[in-house]
TrEMBL record:
<dbReference type="InterPro" id="IPR020568">
    <property type="entry name" value="Ribosomal_Su5_D2-typ_SF"/>
</dbReference>
<feature type="compositionally biased region" description="Basic and acidic residues">
    <location>
        <begin position="447"/>
        <end position="457"/>
    </location>
</feature>
<dbReference type="InterPro" id="IPR041095">
    <property type="entry name" value="EFG_II"/>
</dbReference>
<dbReference type="Pfam" id="PF00009">
    <property type="entry name" value="GTP_EFTU"/>
</dbReference>
<feature type="region of interest" description="Disordered">
    <location>
        <begin position="193"/>
        <end position="212"/>
    </location>
</feature>
<dbReference type="GO" id="GO:0042256">
    <property type="term" value="P:cytosolic ribosome assembly"/>
</dbReference>
<dbReference type="InterPro" id="IPR056752">
    <property type="entry name" value="EFL1"/>
</dbReference>
<keyword id="KW-0378">Hydrolase</keyword>
<dbReference type="InterPro" id="IPR004161">
    <property type="entry name" value="EFTu-like_2"/>
</dbReference>
<feature type="region of interest" description="Disordered">
    <location>
        <begin position="901"/>
        <end position="924"/>
    </location>
</feature>
<dbReference type="GO" id="GO:1990904">
    <property type="term" value="C:ribonucleoprotein complex"/>
</dbReference>
<protein>
    <recommendedName>
        <fullName>Elongation factor-like 1</fullName>
    </recommendedName>
</protein>
<dbReference type="InterPro" id="IPR035647">
    <property type="entry name" value="EFG_III/V"/>
</dbReference>
<dbReference type="Pfam" id="PF14492">
    <property type="entry name" value="EFG_III"/>
</dbReference>
<dbReference type="GO" id="GO:0043022">
    <property type="term" value="F:ribosome binding"/>
</dbReference>
<dbReference type="InterPro" id="IPR000795">
    <property type="entry name" value="T_Tr_GTP-bd_dom"/>
</dbReference>
<dbReference type="InterPro" id="IPR000640">
    <property type="entry name" value="EFG_V-like"/>
</dbReference>
Amino acid sequence: MGHTSLDKIKALQKNPANVRNLCILAHVDHGKTTLADSLVASNGIISSRLAGKLRYLDSREDEQIRGITMKSSAISLHYASGEKDYLINLIDSPGHVDFSSEVSTAVRLCDGAIVIVDAVEGVCPQTQAVLRQAWLENIRPVLVINKIDRLIMELKLTSQEAYTHLQKILEQVNAVTGSLFTSKVLEDRAVKEERAEEDKEEGDIKPAECPGSEQVYDWSAGLEDSDDSQLYFSPDQGNVVFASAIDGWGFSIQQFAQIHSQRMGIRAEVLLKTLWGDFYLNAKAKKIMKGAHAKGKKPLFVQLVLDNIWSLYDAVVTRRDKEKIEKMMMSLGVKVMTRDSRHSDPKVLLSAICSQWLPVSQAVLFMVCDKLPSPLDMTSERIERLMSVGARRFHSLPLQTQELKTAFMQCSSDDTAPVIVFVSKMFMVDAKALPQNKQRPLTQEEMGQRRELARQRHTERLAAIQQTESGEGNAQSGSTTPATTPGQMQGLPLKAKPEEEEEKETFVAFARVYSGVVRRGQKVFVMGPKYDPAQGLACLPPVPHLACCTMDSLYLLMGRELEELEEVPSGNVLGIGGLEECVLKSATLSTSPALPPFIPLNFEATPIVRVAIEPKHPSEMPKLVRGMRLLNQADPCAEVLIQETGEHVLVTAGEVHLQRCLDDLRERFAKIEISASKPIIPFRETVIRPPKVDMVNEDLGKQQKVAVIHQVKESDTLHLDPSGLVTLTTPNRQATVGVRAIPLPEEVTLLLEGSADLIRTLEQAGQAQREGRTLDMSTWTLDALMVLKSRLEVLLQGRKWRNAVDRIWAFGPRRYGPNILLNSVEGYQRPSVWHCLEREKGEKEGGAKAEASAIRDFDNSVVSGFQLATLSGPMCEEPLMGVCFSVERWDMNFPTQRTHLDSVTEKDSNSLDASVSESPGEGAMAGASHGRLVDCYGPFSGQLIAAVKEACRHAFQAKPQRLMAAMYTCEIMATAEVLGRVYGVLGKREGRVLQEEMKEGTEMFIIKAVLPVAESFGFADEIRKRTSGLASPQLVFSHWEVISSDPSWVPTTEEEYLHFGEKADSANQALKYMNGVRRRKGLYVEEKIVEHGEKQRTLSKNK
């Protein structure tokens, strides 16, 4: 197929039924970009000889050097199947785990996906991740099993063994899909049961509908009734292609069914059902029969398909048998150029034959057009999910918003249809690469005009020369120079403009139109992530979280190039210019204010690697700030923040991602020399239960301690109880606070960490209630909060946790973290954090709730002190995790005199007296003076905040304290020869192997391990060096883990002294981490500079 014109693509865009939006997903190095090259070559954009070598969609220099894709790139392709013309909007995505955020941006814009699996490596960690992402976004996948040539050339498998191996790979992929389907069915069943219970409580079920005699419980999980026939990958369904993209061939079973049906005289439909499976050909009876495995016969797939490919490889690559090759080419009807047949590399001849016999682009594009949905086939389930942002369900949205669902379903390009666009990411383009700044190829008319102009000038010049020779007109000869001057003068400013713009870079939005027609210069609303359509429809402008912007230019994305468009109809992928001021990373655009923002993108990788960045020359700081702002906008996953210390910090998903961001900062965004610190490793601080054994596993109860650690120094304002209760008095002696630190169970910590969004919603509802406002929460949010509360009640069992859930005062840090402040003050019945739930429930039941107990003054000061304490712990100023602070005492004693309230008028004091008498007081609070009401945010409030913070820190130190390290899960694929070296590198870096299994049918081992983030830098390079490139790790942030060793440990028992010696100078990993963080933050580090004075030699400057 030749190169497709821009006009043809514009015409194809107008028919959404023949548009296919798809992305290519796979594990790293499974052949995504190579396959994309073959598809791009089918449109004549690149030479078919360069397909697989050029990697056309990898446009960055570092992508070409490293050989991996780092960003999502889109290209529009034309494919003709019979009489139908299709437009394929193809997006190539990265496979490296560090760039999985780019996969999320690609998946959101697509209706289908090509999932590629390496025939040797099979299903890898990232394959599972991309299948899960496709499932979460409700897009339909098709499968390409790539690199089948490796089974022939590397593993040396026979065609029969290869068939068994391919069956196993299909089973692995289908197992992943099946597990996702099962979890969804069980989740739906649980939701249905909850709704049924709610209906029963509300009395919606009519007596006639209820069974008369007895209640029968349905024990089925719902899996029996669910239809999963179209879910799995099966070659006979036409959603699997077997390929070798590097050699340019690929096929589906349909192709071979049609080829052999003509030769054998068997109907294509019969062959299609029997080519894949346990069927064989009975040559005598000329029938296809079942039971090939039991009878020891060759399956049809091996006999009719694989044997032909194996014999072609044997003749061309292994034996180089020219006669056999010529016979094969004759039978296949393939003609090869002489230079290909004489080439020294047999792979050149092989790809020349295969690309004509079984072109991979033909097989894949046919499958895509046949099996993947068009924009018109978008499911209502996917639409509802996209529009149900945050805790809101689709049915709770305003009616005008729900009506927009039909606009999605129709995917109409009428002028009346509302414009709905989603921007998944912003990417930067050089201004000189924009189509309006490019030198366009001249049309025939323009070339004709220029030709005429050149002839005219030539004749003028000849006439001038003749006149000069004859000596008639010297003055006229000078008049030829002004003839060229206007052209030169016009040319000067045109050339100067691009030079000015070379410095600039422009942001282009990577987007898709879901409804309506997008036109250049059109104005649209930009919905912020917190925008509420109910507010937008009710309020007059300005509406919160709603902005207006103009789409300055529209582009067709063609890989490395952009083409300018005037309008883009519904169902297409496009680039939009001029949104950099309105859109940060992703956004929802619409002409209707009733549209809610789409749900946020689902990122698999969490940004965890931090570095502090500063310019080499301090005067270039503004350039660095601007550059980091641009990087933050251009990268979907990178985060840029300024710490309390004033450092500019860049947070990335991993080492490769970090390197790419730093290169971009230097070369594209800031364009200055920068210096990056060593990676800032995040830690957490926690307390644990007192250990029962010492460092030599001896029982602590039977030994006599010879040293005491963790001792809190007491003073006149600070007292430590033997049970761990810390009592602290404020400097003005007006308040005393007693706090105890208790370690939270691990399950509770994980639950709180996973429910951060819910807790934030709960805190917002509580804040609104205290301010006298009401925050509308959906039924789903209330149900989720009730479930969270009940799960906490189940997990917090035992005497010390009695009624603990109802006594929760606050969560922290930042009011939604994995730490709890507990109210254990006698006589202070403050409203629980769950109070808003009880009020909502009371309103639903229609019963009037009793008025809640009053909140003491300065209650907020106690919470603020707790927030500060949990934000930076005493060990190395890192946030706390899994700690419960129980406030067991809170006394306040105010002086009776009010000398500082002279300015208060009598009328004000009377009103104050009235307010005091009306407010209920508890204990010491009842006799308090009016002064405290005025002083609520004064100096005393600050003293109380500081006292609570210090009490929490001392209570924390009174318990056995530990550091928590961030952990990666590490999956390594390695051969048996290098297994020992992999274990050596893991052991050296504090890694811990969890599982090791051998992949069936291969020599590869899969090792699953956990590795501290602190030890992960340079890990991938070291593994590759030690194993000569035979092992490659995938690192994904997993969880936080307590480091077992105590950072402040010293020998305390006789046995420990005997075992570790008096100095105990063996490496303490936790202490090393803690001192590293303290040193970086400029805190005091307790270390001996001079170990043995008499042995220290004096170092002079002149050595």
